[in-house]
Amino acid sequence: MHKSSRVAEAMLWSIALPGFGQFRNGKYIKGTLLIVMEFLINAQSNLNLIIISSFHGDIRGTIDQTDYQWLMFYPCVYMYGIWDAFKDAGGGTKPYAVFPFVFGAFFATIGVIYSPYFLGAMWLGILGLAVGVAVGMALQYAFRNRFATDRNGS
């Protein structure tokens, strides 16, 4: 299997459920730990109820159902699972490859923090994730070009 196919497959499994990408990469202990954390945070934060209410347009219901003390852990566990599967499959070899994952987790967590005031926990968290990944990709591009220019003597 081609390297890019392995990387994409590991990332897609991790997007489906944190820990599945680690199982795909043969990292069974780490995968089991991520799955346990996923189920614990999901159950304690009421994430499945939040998702259902969000898709029904019941933003007030999502805010009332959410345990924010637990939900704030989810973006970091989720993005770490994707990053780790990506890296272990051979995708994290370029400088600053971690930036989109770190900034995605950071902005998604900020979205969760402010979600009681706007859009509810799921939608503002996902919006924050998208913004964070975009910021991370832009910074990754800028840092790679800036430091590549410095190494080339320009």
TrEMBL record:
The keyword Transmembrane applies. It comes from the Bacteria. Keywords: Membrane, Transmembrane, Transmembrane helix. The chain crosses the membrane at residues 98-117, 123-143. This is DUF5683 domain-containing protein. It comes from Cohnella zeiphila.
